[in-house]
Design a protein that fits this description.
Length: about 80
């Protein structure tokens, strides 16, 4: 897949996170998701926290929910959205 197509897909995913109101994202570093993680890093409205284990991501998102922030964690090829609403 050409770089422009990968970037367009990453932009679309980040746009969906923003439209869902996500302000905190916890992710595991994975090579196949590199373009998306780079776009999340560059997005000023999302606080991106890279974690070493999936349960660390759940803990980060739980803490964000206690602070009334909408958060998402990328877990095993899908996003889990956690909300304080």
């Amino acid at each position: 897949m050409p770089n422009s197509a990968i970037t367009a897909r990453a932009d679309a995913i980040v746009a969906e996170l923003i439209s869902a109101g996500i302000s905190v994202a916890a992710t595991l570093p994975e090579s196949w998701l590199g373009a998306v993680l780079d776009q999340v890093d560059r997005e000023p409205s999302i606080r991106h926290i890279r974690v070493a284990r999936e349960d660390d991501g759940a803990a980060v998102c739980a803490g964000a929910a206690l602070a009334a922030k909408r958060s998402g964690s990328r877990r095993t090829r899908r996003w889990v959205l956690l909300s304080s609403l």
